[in-house]
Sequence to fold (346 residues):
Amino acid sequence: MKALLLAGGLGTRLRPLTERWPKPMALVGNRPWLEHVVLHLKEEGIEEIVMAVKHAPETIRQYFGDGSRWGVNIQYAIEESLLGTAGAIKNAEPLLGDRFLVLNADIIQRTPLVPLIDFHHKSGALVTIGLTEVEDPSHYGVVEQAESGRIARFVEKPALHEAPSRRINAGIYVMDKEALRYIPPKREVSIERETFPLLIEQSGGLYGRLLGGYWLDMGTTDRYRKLHRDILDRTFPLQLHAAERDQSIWIGEDAEIGSGVLIVPPVLIGSRVRIGERSVIGPYTVIGDDCEIGAQVRCAESILWDRCKVRMGAQLNHCIFGHDLELGPHHRLHEAVMNRVPGGIS
Ligand code: GTP
Fold:
């Protein structure tokens, strides 16, 4: 079965990190999230992947190429204009088979996919939505289902006591090609707002099945920070490409830690990172590959992507830096989210 990854959105809520960078390529535990998705699909036995791209597509294509480095085959469906979450699926139709998986590429999960696919085979659904349960459903479209799993309706942002369930769309679907008849071509179409209601009304073929395990939509900077706390706390058990040198201190290959450096766990330090003497790193800090941290730097609760330079005596607290940023000596930053774009550096 092929998997279609929706990876073309603008990621406006994660700006400026996503200004020229696709949201699904945001580093998560020092790797683009999309790479974790590809590895997960491979583990699940899915080796045929189509990526639906629009915003900064070359970043994704250059990184993954034909997928052979990961033992998968990747094709690309490129949109000329934004087509939305259903329009992007319709646009990829020529590359898809009779039945396929669709995943929002910015959803953080590593759920087993086979039970969802099996359920879809047995239920006779046109589309099966993977569902997740949230504590407070009042910000979401909440699912009302029959015993069989068939979805009767979505209740948009219900008051807590009026919510028919705590189940919401997890952004993972199994679809039959026939469902694409319900998506008009060559225009922007939202799967949540247009296609699902139409499928309920006209086909009765929309089903849902609860997925287990961790689930997070990483679409805002707050959630992106939470995600990293969850990784470092092991609430979300993600395979990190660094050795755990001490309790909750992961350090990548060829990192050089200067004398007198204090690392306060949990901390993830990437490969080839250099940290100058008497710096204090952590807690809840992730430093990307090839970063250079000067002497006497303090860096807490922050996430730095690859190749950043933080000069001597600088202090960072609760910051997120995109790739290749430089912070001058003795600068102090608190809660800054920055990227290398005009106006992005504050
Ligand atoms: P915001 O602008 O912050 O809402 O982010 P977004 O539009 O990038 O993401 P959203 O959560 O709305 O979309 C869910 C998933 O669908 C993400 O992985 C997006 O990359 C993807 N997506 C959204 N719109 C499109 C689109 O028009 N084309 C393609 N190919 N993917 C899309």
In short: The two ends are 46 Å apart (CA to CA).
